[in-house]
Design brief:
Blueprint: H1 2-21, E1 26-30, E2 33-37, H2 41-57
Antiparallel strand pairs: 1-2
Length: 74
């Protein structure tokens, strides 16, 4: 239960950063996992770097297992 509350508390600012500053419309978060949907791999890498910088300022960091994937739809 504590983990759920901490995830909501610590990552609320991240939600606002992603939605309002980066203006990413394709964003979903459940506790400490999140997905960012965008149009290209280069844009995804750009967003990843900006999110990583934001997390660093908050004294947080990505898990070493963090992955950037790009899926194409037909």
């Amino acid at each position: 239960m504590t983990n759920q509350v901490l995830a909501i508390f610590y990552l609320n600012d991240l939600d606002h950063f992603i939605k309002e500053k980066l203006k990413i419309k394709g964003y979903v978060r459940y506790q400490d996992d999140f997905l960012v949907y965008c149009e290209s791999k280069s844009k995804l890498k750009e967003y990843t770097k900006e999110i990583e910088n934001f997390l660093h300022k908050e004294k947080l960091k990505f898990n070493p297992k963090t992955k950037c994937l790009l899926f194409y739809t037909l």
